[in-house]
Amino acid sequence: MRTLFIYIFIGTLTSIFVGAGVFYYFEGPLNAQVASYADALWFSFGTATLLGLGDILPETWGGRIVSVFLMGFGFFFLAAFATLGSWSIIQRLLRERKNKIILDVTPNSELDDALEDLKHLSHLDRKRLLELEKIYEKIFHVEKIP
To answer: What is the pTM of this model?
Structure first.
């Protein structure tokens, strides 16, 4: 899960920095608002994070296309982070619920006594008794899942 988060984070930063470079390539020479790569990076962060500050506007078709791609990447990465975060929370809650259920199922001394009594009954064959014992072990002696 953490590696997926890291990949998404690296993908986000890569798209922002590459988008800033391509935006600067198209807009730098023609747009007075984009005087340096830092201005293009500012625009790229604002667009990819879906803030859309509006202080820098693309004037060329190339810059507008880069803006659309940055918005698309920003939407994708925002959705990916939200999905990953909610998945993480759901998985943790399911693990806690599973652990709670397992911890609630504890061996019962009365059932132990009943099983011992069954061993002394002559009308049960040994094979059936072993099957009952396996079922009992499966139900009541479950280890806690990490």
So the answer is: 0.60
